[in-house]
Amino acid sequence: MFFLQMSGFPGSGKSTLAHMLARRTGAVIVDHDVVKSALMEFMEVQTMDAKTAGKISYGVDWSLIDFHLSLGHAVIFDSPCLYAEMLGNGMRLAEKYNVKYKYVECYLNDFQKINERLKNRSRKTSQIQEVLSEKVFSVAVDSSEKPLNVEHLVIDSGKPLSSYIDEVLEYILE
Questions:
Q1: Among positive and negative, which fits the CA dihedral 36, 165, 23, 148?
Q2: Each residue of 36-82: pLDDT tens digit?
Q3: Percentage with pLDDT > 90 across the chain
Q4: Closest to 146 measured CA to CA, from 87, 79, 93
Q5: CATH code of the domain covering residue 50
Q6: Mean pLDDT across the stretch 101-107?
Q7: Range of the domain at 60
Q8: Rg (Cα) of the chain, in Å, rounded?
Q9: What is the pLDDT of residue 126?
């Protein structure tokens, strides 16, 4: 059993990879965008309150992850990983339930391709539609928190999923 913490800029392919991994492994996905969008829609949260909605939804995410791990399910957390506390939470839960902690970053440092993906996807309420500044993008794309003392995987998600899915499966199942 494992807990997989996904990471990567919006539009980098986290959800696409998470869905394929869930189909292949039977793992449960906790998707931050689903939780945050539901909260925003239910509470009729405006854009200025999106930060608060994000904070609350992370609390819900971690509760769901804890619950599913307690039932003996492998869990994939589909979310950017921008804060060190997220790494700590993930590692603590993996230790609590004695499961393997895994971390995969979908890395795509291509402003045009990211924007193309963002504009062409079926967007949830909480998701961005495009990145307006290349400067903001270049800083953010390299801002993912990575575990220091844990083997982790960074994949080039600009390539076709078929070119790296087996490598990711091998990593999470080892």
A1: negative
A2: 888 887 777 555 477 787 888 999 999 999 999 999 999 999 998 88
A3: 56
A4: 87
A5: 3.40.50.300
A6: 96
A7: 2-173
A8: 16
A9: 64
Q: Whose CA is closest to 150, among 88, 74, 96, 98?
A: 88
By C-alpha distance, which of 75, 62, 67, 66 is closest to 26?
75
DSSP 3-state assignment of 64? Answer: helix
H or E segment and range at residue 31: strand 28-31
Reply yes or no on whether the pLDDT at 20 is more than 70.
Answer: yes
The sheet with strand 153-156 has its strands ordered as 28-31, 75-78, 2-7, 100-107, 153-156
**CB neighbours of residue 166 within 10 Å:** 10
CB 28 within 8 A of CB 128: no
Q: Report the predicted TM-score, pTM, of the whole model to 2 decimal places.
A: 0.89
- Distance CA(131)–CA(61), nearest Å, equals 25
Total domains in the fold of the chain: 1
